[in-house]
Protein: DUF4351 domain-containing protein
Amino acid sequence: MIIFGSRSLEPSNSTIHRALLESGQVRRVYLDELGKVQQQPLGLGLMLLTTVPETEAVEAAQFLLEQAQQQSEQAIIDLVTTIIVYKFSNLSREEIEAMLGLNLEEPRAFRDAREEGRIEEARSLVLRLLKRRFGEFSDELQRQVQVLSLERLEALGDALLDFSSLVDLEAWLQGEVKG
Structure:
C-alpha cells in the first residue's frame, strides 16, 4: 500500500517501479478521496487530519480528540495536538488550546526535543569551559563528559570552577564512575 495526500502528490515518473505498480500487488490510497475525518476510524482520521484545509482542521481535530479521550488514547491526543500546532504554526499554544477547547500539555516530542537541546547546550558549554581553562584534553576525557546526564553536566559546570588542573577533572569523573 502506498499512501498519498492526493493524486497530485503521486510522482509522475514511476518508470523504475512501473512493473510493481501495475502488478496488482500495490494499492494506492489518496487521503483526500477517503471522505471526512469524522467518517473514518481514529488512526485513519489522524492521517487525514494532516491533509485537511485549515478551515476544516479545527473541527476535525476536536472530533479526533473527543474520540481519543473516549478511548483513553493519549498517544493519539499527542499526535492530534502536534499536527494542529504545525498546521497553525502562527498561533500561540494558548490560542490553540482555546480553539480546541483543551488544556494542552506540551506534546512529548516537543518536550523531548527541548530536553535534548538543553543537554547538548550544557555539554557544549562544559566542554568549552574545560578547553578554555585547561587547553586541549584527551578524547577519552571528552567522551566521559559527553555521556553525562544534564544533571551531572550542571554539577560538573559548578565543580570545574574549583578545578586547578585536569587531575581534578579526572578525579571528579572517576567519582562519577564509582558513584
